[in-house]
Design goal:
Blueprint lengths: L8 H22 L3 H5 L3 E4 L15 E12 L2 E13 L1 H11 L3 H20 L9 H22 L11 H4 L1
Parallel strand pairs: 1-3
Antiparallel strand pairs: 2-3
Amino acid sequence: MARQDCFNPVQLKIVSGAGEHAASLVSDYYRVAPREWLQMPYEVRTLRSLDSSEVTDTALAQTVCYAFRREAGSVVVKEGDLFRICLQDHRILGAVRDLDLGLRSLLTYVLIHELVHVVRFGQRLQSIDLPQELRSQEERKVERTTRTILAKAGDPNMDRIPSSADSVC
Protein backbone atom coordinates (compact mmCIF):
# COMPACT_ATOMS: atom_id res chain seq x y z
CA MET A 1 0.00 0.00 0.00
CA ALA A 2 1.41 3.33 -1.01
CA ARG A 3 1.70 6.12 1.56
CA GLN A 4 -0.79 8.34 -0.31
CA ASP A 5 -3.41 5.57 0.02
CA CYS A 6 -3.63 6.18 3.78
CA PHE A 7 -5.08 9.15 5.64
CA ASN A 8 -2.51 11.74 6.63
CA PRO A 9 -2.49 13.34 10.13
CA VAL A 10 -4.84 16.18 9.10
CA GLN A 11 -7.26 13.69 7.53
CA LEU A 12 -7.12 11.50 10.66
CA LYS A 13 -8.39 14.48 12.68
CA ILE A 14 -11.26 14.75 10.19
CA VAL A 15 -11.96 11.03 10.72
CA SER A 16 -12.17 11.62 14.46
CA GLY A 17 -14.50 14.61 14.14
CA ALA A 18 -16.72 12.87 11.62
CA GLY A 19 -16.87 9.84 13.91
CA GLU A 20 -18.06 11.91 16.86
CA HIS A 21 -20.64 13.68 14.68
CA ALA A 22 -21.89 10.40 13.18
CA ALA A 23 -22.16 8.74 16.62
CA SER A 24 -24.17 11.70 17.90
CA LEU A 25 -26.56 11.58 14.94
CA VAL A 26 -27.05 7.81 15.20
CA SER A 27 -27.54 8.06 18.97
CA ASP A 28 -30.22 10.72 18.48
CA TYR A 29 -31.99 8.72 15.77
CA TYR A 30 -32.09 5.43 17.68
CA ARG A 31 -32.24 7.07 21.13
CA VAL A 32 -29.18 5.08 22.19
CA ALA A 33 -28.10 5.96 25.71
CA PRO A 34 -24.40 5.95 26.63
CA ARG A 35 -24.89 2.79 28.73
CA GLU A 36 -26.42 1.06 25.68
CA TRP A 37 -23.29 1.83 23.62
CA LEU A 38 -21.34 -0.05 26.31
CA GLN A 39 -23.31 -3.15 25.32
CA MET A 40 -22.33 -2.58 21.66
CA PRO A 41 -18.63 -1.68 21.87
CA TYR A 42 -17.12 -0.55 18.61
CA GLU A 43 -13.91 0.93 17.34
CA VAL A 44 -12.98 2.72 14.15
CA ARG A 45 -9.77 1.73 12.44
CA THR A 46 -8.11 3.16 9.37
CA LEU A 47 -6.12 1.33 6.72
CA ARG A 48 -2.75 1.52 8.51
CA SER A 49 -4.07 -0.48 11.46
CA LEU A 50 -6.17 -3.06 9.61
CA ASP A 51 -5.33 -6.74 9.25
CA SER A 52 -5.02 -7.83 5.64
CA SER A 53 -8.29 -9.76 6.08
CA GLU A 54 -10.05 -6.47 6.95
CA VAL A 55 -8.97 -4.68 3.76
CA THR A 56 -11.32 -4.66 0.78
CA ASP A 57 -11.34 -3.02 -2.61
CA THR A 58 -15.11 -3.32 -2.99
CA ALA A 59 -16.38 -0.95 -0.27
CA LEU A 60 -15.56 2.31 1.47
CA ALA A 61 -15.82 0.58 4.84
CA GLN A 62 -16.97 -2.60 6.45
CA THR A 63 -17.96 -3.63 9.94
CA VAL A 64 -16.46 -6.81 11.31
CA CYS A 65 -17.61 -8.49 14.52
CA TYR A 66 -15.14 -10.13 16.88
CA ALA A 67 -16.01 -12.08 20.00
CA PHE A 68 -13.99 -11.06 23.01
CA ARG A 69 -13.48 -12.45 26.47
CA ARG A 70 -11.72 -10.78 29.39
CA GLU A 71 -10.54 -12.93 32.26
CA ALA A 72 -9.04 -12.20 35.65
CA GLY A 73 -7.32 -15.43 36.52
CA SER A 74 -9.89 -18.15 36.02
CA VAL A 75 -12.88 -15.79 36.31
CA VAL A 76 -14.56 -14.41 33.18
CA VAL A 77 -14.97 -10.68 33.84
CA LYS A 78 -16.66 -9.77 30.57
CA GLU A 79 -17.43 -11.30 27.22
CA GLY A 80 -19.34 -10.15 24.17
CA ASP A 81 -18.96 -8.72 20.70
CA LEU A 82 -16.62 -6.00 19.51
CA PHE A 83 -17.61 -4.28 16.29
CA ARG A 84 -14.68 -2.96 14.27
CA ILE A 85 -15.46 -0.38 11.62
CA CYS A 86 -12.72 -0.80 9.04
CA LEU A 87 -12.32 2.37 6.98
CA GLN A 88 -10.79 1.79 3.59
CA ASP A 89 -8.71 4.97 3.25
CA HIS A 90 -7.70 4.23 -0.34
CA ARG A 91 -11.31 3.81 -1.46
CA ILE A 92 -12.58 6.81 0.52
CA LEU A 93 -9.89 9.13 -0.83
CA GLY A 94 -10.64 7.94 -4.37
CA ALA A 95 -14.37 8.54 -3.86
CA VAL A 96 -13.70 12.06 -2.52
CA ARG A 97 -11.87 12.83 -5.78
CA ASP A 98 -14.44 11.10 -8.02
CA LEU A 99 -17.47 12.69 -6.35
CA ASP A 100 -15.83 16.09 -5.85
CA LEU A 101 -16.97 15.92 -2.25
CA GLY A 102 -15.41 17.01 1.02
CA LEU A 103 -13.75 14.32 3.12
CA ARG A 104 -15.77 15.23 6.23
CA SER A 105 -19.08 14.85 4.38
CA LEU A 106 -18.18 11.47 2.91
CA LEU A 107 -16.75 10.19 6.20
CA THR A 108 -19.88 11.29 8.06
CA TYR A 109 -21.99 9.35 5.56
CA VAL A 110 -19.78 6.25 5.76
CA LEU A 111 -19.57 6.26 9.54
CA ILE A 112 -23.32 6.76 9.97
CA HIS A 113 -23.89 3.85 7.61
CA GLU A 114 -21.53 1.60 9.56
CA LEU A 115 -22.88 2.72 12.95
CA VAL A 116 -26.40 1.85 11.79
CA HIS A 117 -25.03 -1.65 11.15
CA VAL A 118 -23.49 -1.67 14.65
CA VAL A 119 -26.83 -0.72 16.23
CA ARG A 120 -28.76 -3.25 14.16
CA PHE A 121 -26.31 -6.04 15.01
CA GLY A 122 -25.76 -4.95 18.61
CA GLN A 123 -29.46 -4.66 19.41
CA ARG A 124 -30.12 -7.92 17.59
CA LEU A 125 -32.33 -6.22 14.98
CA GLN A 126 -30.30 -8.12 12.39
CA SER A 127 -27.99 -11.13 12.51
CA ILE A 128 -24.31 -10.55 11.83
CA ASP A 129 -24.25 -13.90 9.99
CA LEU A 130 -26.85 -12.91 7.41
CA PRO A 131 -26.95 -15.28 4.40
CA GLN A 132 -25.49 -13.79 1.21
CA GLU A 133 -28.87 -13.75 -0.58
CA LEU A 134 -30.35 -11.44 2.11
CA ARG A 135 -27.45 -9.00 2.38
CA SER A 136 -28.54 -6.62 -0.39
CA GLN A 137 -31.96 -6.28 1.26
CA GLU A 138 -30.24 -5.43 4.57
CA GLU A 139 -27.97 -2.93 2.82
CA ARG A 140 -31.03 -1.19 1.35
CA LYS A 141 -32.57 -0.90 4.84
CA VAL A 142 -29.34 0.50 6.26
CA GLU A 143 -29.02 2.91 3.32
CA ARG A 144 -32.58 4.22 3.85
CA THR A 145 -31.91 4.73 7.56
CA THR A 146 -28.58 6.44 6.79
CA ARG A 147 -30.29 8.83 4.35
CA THR A 148 -33.04 9.59 6.89
CA ILE A 149 -30.44 10.44 9.54
CA LEU A 150 -28.49 12.60 7.09
CA ALA A 151 -31.60 14.45 5.93
CA LYS A 152 -32.18 15.57 9.52
CA ALA A 153 -28.54 16.72 9.74
CA GLY A 154 -29.02 19.02 6.74
CA ASP A 155 -25.70 18.47 4.92
CA PRO A 156 -26.38 19.58 1.31
CA ASN A 157 -23.39 17.59 0.00
CA MET A 158 -25.08 14.26 0.71
CA ASP A 159 -27.07 14.48 -2.52
CA ARG A 160 -23.79 13.95 -4.38
CA ILE A 161 -23.24 10.50 -2.87
CA PRO A 162 -24.70 7.77 -5.10
CA SER A 163 -27.67 5.98 -3.58
CA SER A 164 -26.50 2.57 -4.68
CA ALA A 165 -25.75 1.09 -1.25
CA ASP A 166 -24.17 -2.06 -2.67
CA SER A 167 -21.39 -0.09 -4.34
CA VAL A 168 -20.72 2.39 -1.55
CA CYS A 169 -20.41 0.67 1.85
